[in-house]
Each structure stands twice: as C-alpha cells, then as structure tokens.
Amino acid sequence: MTTALASLGQSILDRAAALAAHSDMEDGLTCAYLTPAHRRAQAQLVQWMETAGMAVRVDAIGNVIGRYAADPAVAAPKVLMTGSHFDTVRNGGRYDGRLGILLPIAVVGALNAAGIRLPYHFEIVGFAEEEGLRFKTSFLASSVLAGRFDPALLDRADPDGVTMREALAQSGLPGAGSLDALRAAAVDPATLAGFVEVHIEQGPVLLNRDLALGIVTQIAGSSRFQVRVEGLASHAGTTPMDMRRDAAAGAAEMILLVESRCAHVPTLVGTVGQLQVPNGSSNVIPAACVFSMDIRAGEDGIREAAITDIVMGIERIAARRGLTATVERVTPVNNAPCARWLMDQFGAVLRKRGLEAFELPSGAGHDAMMMQRMTDVAMLFVRCGNGGISHNPLETITVEDAQLAAEVFVDFLRHFRPQD
Ligand code: HGY
Ligand code: MN
Ligand code: MN
C-alpha cells in the first residue's frame, strides 16, 4: 500500500493540469456546462475512473459516477459517496471542485493496485454543474442526484438563447433531457451511508493557521438574484440632471446598499458580480441596467433578514428615482450543517497522524449542500495557497498538501463505519 500511495499528490496535480487543458477559452480555464470542453473533461474523467478500477456510468444530467465495488464477502453493502464538480467559473482555478474528484480517483487507483477492497461500495461523482455559469442554475447536477431537479429549469436559456432542454436534447446524454430520465437519475437515499466531499478551502483560514487540512462544520446558505432596473433612455447632452431616470445610476445606489447592509454583520456577505447596461451607448442615458446579487450567511435567519432589507431598499431607491426594479430570486439554498459522526471520523484520522482536527465553516457553496438534503455529509478542506485566493487562475495547492489529503482520505475510507 505504501508504494501505491507514494506519488498521489503529484498525480493529482498533474491531472488537474491536464483537465484544465479542456477549456472554453484559449488563455485560461472556463468550463461551462455541456460545452465541447465540458464534454471532453467529462470523457477524460470516465477514462481515469475506469483506469483506476471503477465501473463508470454517465447519468441524464451529465454526472460521471464511478463505483469501486465493495468486497464481495460483504452482504448488502451500502454506498459511501464522494465527489465534487468539474464545471468552473469564468477564468477560474483548476482545483475548485476538481480536487474532490481527482483525489478520490487517485485514492481508488492506489487501493485497487494494492488489492484492497472496502466493506461498502465507494462511489465518486464528477458533478457536471455546480457553478451556474451557463444557465444560472447552481447545484444543477447534485439537485438531479438528490431528486430535487426543478423542471422549470429546462426552459432557462443561456446567454445565446439556447435552452437547457435544447442543450440536453443535443447532448447525447441518456434520456436526451426527458423529465423521466432526469427524475430516474435520483439516488435512493436508503442506499447511502453518507456523502463526503474534499474541496480546496477557497479562503485563507488554514493558510493563516499553518494547517494543511480542516474539517467543515457547516456550509453557509446562499441566495442569488437577478435585478432588472428600468428607466428612460434620453439624450446625454440635453437632459438636465434633475430630469433623468437613469437606470445605471439607480443600480449603482442599489449596489452600495448591498455592500453597506452586509458590511458589519458577522458571516453575512453580499456580492454584485455581474452588471450590465444592455444596448447601452456612451451618449444615451441608460434605459435599463441588470445586475446579479449573491447574499450569504452562516445562519438562514441573518441572510433572510438582509434580503428583506435589501429588496425593500431597492424598491425605495427605484421609487425615488422614477425607476422600476424587478428582483428575481434565482437560487436559494439553505445553510447545510455537516454530520458530527462523519466529522468525528475525519477528526480521529487526523489526530491519529498527530495533526490538529481543526474545524471551520464554509462560506463557499458546495455540492455537499444539495446532498445534505438526502444524506449525512462531511467535508475535508485542503489549504489554498496564494493568500487563499479562489475563483481566480491564481488558485493553488501544494503537492505536499495534496499528498497528505490523499493519505488522510485513504485512512478515512479504511476506517469508515456507517452509522448504525
Ligand atoms: O459560489 C460558490 O460558493 C461555489 O463555488 N459555486
Ligand atoms: Mn466555485
Ligand atoms: Mn467548488
């Protein structure tokens, strides 16, 4: 086993680099749902899982699911699931999501090479879509697995006007986007022993504490919105300042409201990451402005209170400026606590190695949030270098941390016992 474990860290980093070569853009990594690059990444994962010794299937939404079958001597084995997403944000990092697929594949390869079977089926899921880049549908892939797919999403269009229904129909995926196939892809929770996700931390907490690994206590809930502000187009040179109904100026005031409302409450954060003046011209007062809004907090009540205040504030600003504002809630996901019994099994493994079993909450969203709706979950965070930056090409981990995380994950799997 020791030989098989020797260079897992390097192989994980090498594969992350190889997977990042499949990109929608030439100079950086963008892998949006069901693009040609996304399909190539998916095919690569199938191949790596098969090589590692897994039986692989691709489901109706495009998830790649590899099974490392249980020791045949075990009667009625349950399934322990792991995984994360292989889609990315625009110009993102190569470890966000992908680490949680590549690390367990490397681990299964090592177990298989050493002839070690586990007393449960171990499944790795490469989730096809978590980031929401193409259809503004974050957690799409895990929602299908968790039996929570929203059929209304099939009519949602990407920026080129292609609906998800059309994209799935042309995808070659099983079921071609039929609702029956998407519903049938749900996993029966009774078969599961739990879900664990390895993920890069995407923040500076572990780095600042000089720790390679951490155990997640809970994942902060998040709500995303699209806000459309409408005003009146008129001449930039002739319309007096007090006669304008400027949608962009109104949006600017609304964005500052998001910032100020979220600024002084612990764990509460608010972000406007997209902002457009559709069909704008430099010499025309903006008739419309569209922006995204992402609000998160460690407690659902804190997030909901902030949302209420912000939406009321947006309406007040619009009314004062003679504008209209429409606020559409895109994806609400509640706070997801991790299961103490699973966290404790990670903690025991870390302590046995003489490492601190440090616990921290996650401010970023993860597939584990959706899986937590159907089974108990836990997450292992791996230190993020470069000051903890993520959703950025500068995102990085070290080969030593990847190696340690893989070894800890092996220990976890070999000691894992389902809850009675
Ligand atoms: O936005 C998030 O938290 C996640 O990385 N999709
Ligand atoms: Mn991400
Ligand atoms: Mn992620």
Automatic annotation (TrEMBL):
Q: Which GO terms describe its molecular function?
A: hydrolase activity
Q: Which cofactor does it need?
A: Mn(2+)
Query: What stretch or stretches form a coiled coil here?
Result: none
Keyword Disulfide bond appears in the UniProt entry: no
Q: Peptidase M20 dimerisation domain: from which residue to which, for each copy?
A: 221-310
- Keywords for this entry? Hydrolase, Manganese, Metal-binding
Origin, by domain of life?
Bacteria
* Protein family membership: Belongs to the peptidase M20 family.
Subunit structure, interactors included: Homodimer.
Protein name, entry field = Zn-dependent hydrolase
Q: What is the lineage of its organism?
A: Bacteria, Pseudomonadati, Pseudomonadota, Betaproteobacteria, Burkholderiales
